[in-house]
Amino acid sequence: MLKVENVTKYYGNFLAVDHLTFEVKDGEIFGLLGVNGAGKTTTFRMINGLLDKTEGSITLDGLPIDYSVTDKIGFLTEERSLLTKLTVKEQAIYYGILKGMEEKKILEKLEYWLDRFHITDYKDRKIKELSKGNQQKVQFITAIINEPKLLILDEPFSGLDPINVQQFMDVIRELKNKGTSIIFSSHRMEHVEMFCEKLVVLVHGKSVLAGELKQIKKEYRKKNIHIEANHIDVEALKKVEGVLEVLVNETEMVVKIKSDENVKNVFEFIKKCQDVTKFVVEDATLNEIFLEKVGVNYEN
């Protein structure tokens, strides 16, 4: 288990992370979210032991993070961190040895993962000769080649097409099921919703939203109603009590309401319309919650 307790980081007089506390259990995927400059990268670097904390503590399985512990951590950075003049094989050996692995074991793992991601033919190709997507695969492989106890994924799907995104998702879920603690960070809220059980949202280094995703959604009272029907008077619908906004697209209408207490008002209006084929009430998306919470706190 990773524990981050009351961690603060100053760069001179600049407060980058402000008394941040969270924990990631074994076999749990945890979301660490925020806009650019919110303090995520600083937090990742402190967890990896690359930056010293100003205050607080960070432990993995009860042990402070030092070089003996960092061998158990895998880190896929948002920026490309590959040595482009090396071959894929040389890159894997380099990272594996840094994590205390023997070369024979590194090569065994490399063969497995290259085959898994369908890039076996690239083993002796230089990194700079690969596409962005294949470079991302290699970077992911180097992050997991040591079978980490803790895996940090910062924008892991960058440069990937939908098929390869699904491949990454499958592997991430496998690692979770094997007990790996995973911190997942992305600006794509739909990806966070697919993975994360718990999350923290940072603004200016301070947590403004934290907890279990299901509970966060439950406590956020606004709902969305997805409707398909003919001859809806949109302007009249906007005036129904509790309706905040009505969005019309090619396939359906989305009605945003203040809370589930207003569902019946919209239903009474819609049932008078013709050919109602869809009326589905859903929680607000994480993207909507994120925008509201970050927007309220961003200028503070």
Give a structural overview.
The protein has helices spanning 40-47, 67-70, 88-98, 103-116, 132-144, 162-177, 189-195, 213-219, 234-238, 263-270, 286-298, and strands spanning 2-11, 14-24, 29-34, 55-60, 63-64, 73-76, 150-154, 181-185, 198-203, 206-212, 223-230, 243-248, 253-257, 274-283. The chain is globular and about 70 Å long. It is of the alpha/beta class. The mean pLDDT is 93. It has eleven helices and 14 strands. A six-stranded mixed beta sheet has the order 6-7-8-3-9-10. Strand 1 (2-11) and strand 2 form a beta hairpin. Helix 3 (88-98) crosses helix 4 (103-116) and helix 3 runs parallel beside helix 5 (132-144). The chain has two domains: 2-217, Rossmann fold (3-Layer(aba) Sandwich), CATH 3.40.50.300; 221-283, 2-Layer Sandwich (Alpha-Beta Plaits).
CATH class of the largest domain: Alpha Beta
Residue stretches low in confidence (pLDDT < 50, at least 5 long) are none
Order of helices and strands: EEEHEEHEHHHEHEHEEHEHEEHEH
User: How does CATH name the architecture of the largest domain?
Assistant: 3-Layer(aba) Sandwich
Number of domains: 2
Q: Give the N-terminus to C-terminus distance in angstroms.
A: 33 Å
Helix/strand structural class: alpha/beta
- Strand order of the main beta sheet, please? 6-7-8-3-9-10
Mean pLDDT: 93
* Strand elements, count: 14
Rg calc? 23 Å
Query: Can you say what the CATH homologous superfamily of the largest domain is?
Result: P-loop containing nucleotide triphosphate hydrolases
Residues in helix, %: 25-40%
- The portion of residues forming beta strands comes to 25-35%
CATH third-level topology of the largest domain: Rossmann fold
Count of DSSP helices? Answer: 11
The main sheet comes to: 6 strands, mixed
The best one-word shape is globular
